Amino acid sequence: MIYTKEIFQRLTRGQFLSHNTTDSEAKAMYQDLDENYQAYLEYFKMIGLVLVKGYNYFHFTREMDEVKAEDKLRGLYSYIDYLDILYDCDPRFDIGRTLSVSMIENKVGERKTLQDKLDMMISEKGKPDTTYRDAILDIFKDMTNKGFFELVNKNTDTYIVTDAFAYIRDVVDMLTPKSDTYNETAQ
């Protein structure tokens, strides 16, 4: 258990640690967690945190009452919109896939349905002066902050989808009716 402090700091911010990270420090933390999972699980349990091991990723969760659970679900609504847009841009969008801001921006410029989806998202956030590029950057920033994306090339704004994406993909899949665009393209 070498990285207890660093793991605690990252995971308590709501971030994930993924196996396919390109960040050497995060990779070392992931490997330490993987090798010492039971010890970390017991350690964090003593301070009221539940260490969850997904398929190639780790994150924290807490036991919560119904009100907190509802708030957490409301926080996931934006991810439903994000995934709807991203799968509409690239039906093969998934773990390990690389994508860039300009690639998504080009797709939005070509397709009215994507423009409508971004317009709706911009309207819901109450920022009517937001450009499509800014809205796309917000999606990438949010996905990166949570650990679902990782910047791999700053010059081209190219990102990779991390293993942690499986968490949000699976949660959104459970919350989204099967007839939605996301589910049709994901399958």
Distance between the first and last residues' Cα: 39 Å
Structural class: alpha+beta
Q: Please give the largest β-sheet.
A: 3 strands, antiparallel
Q: Roughly what is the average pLDDT, rounded to an integer?
A: 87
Strand order of the largest sheet: 1-3-2
> What's the overall geometry?
globular
Helicity, as a percent range: 55-70%
Order of helices and strands: HEHHEEHEHHHEEHH
Radius of gyration: 17 Å
Describe the secondary-structure layout.
Elements (H helix, E strand, L loop, with lengths): L3 H8 L5 E2 L5 H12 L1 H9 L4 E5 L2 E5 L4 H24 L8 E3 H10 L1 H14 L6 H15 L2 E5 L4 E4 L3 H11 L5 H6 L1
Antiparallel strand pairs: 1-3, 2-3, 4-6, 5-6
Helix pairs in contact: 4-6, 4-8, 5-6, 5-7
Mind explaining what this structure looks like?
The structure is a single chain. This protein is an alpha+beta fold and 187 residues long. Helices cover 58% and strands 13% of the residues. It has 9 helices and 6 strands; from the N terminus they run H-E-H-H-E-E-H-E-H-H-H-E-E-H-H. A 3-stranded antiparallel beta sheet has the order 1-3-2. Helix 4 (66-89) runs antiparallel to helix 6 and helix 4 (66-89) packs across helix 8 (165-175). The longest helix has 24 residues, at 66-89. The radius of gyration is 17 Å and the shape is globular. Mean pLDDT is 87; it is low at 180-187.
Overview features:
187 residues, alpha+beta, three-stranded antiparallel beta sheet, 9 helices, disordered C terminus
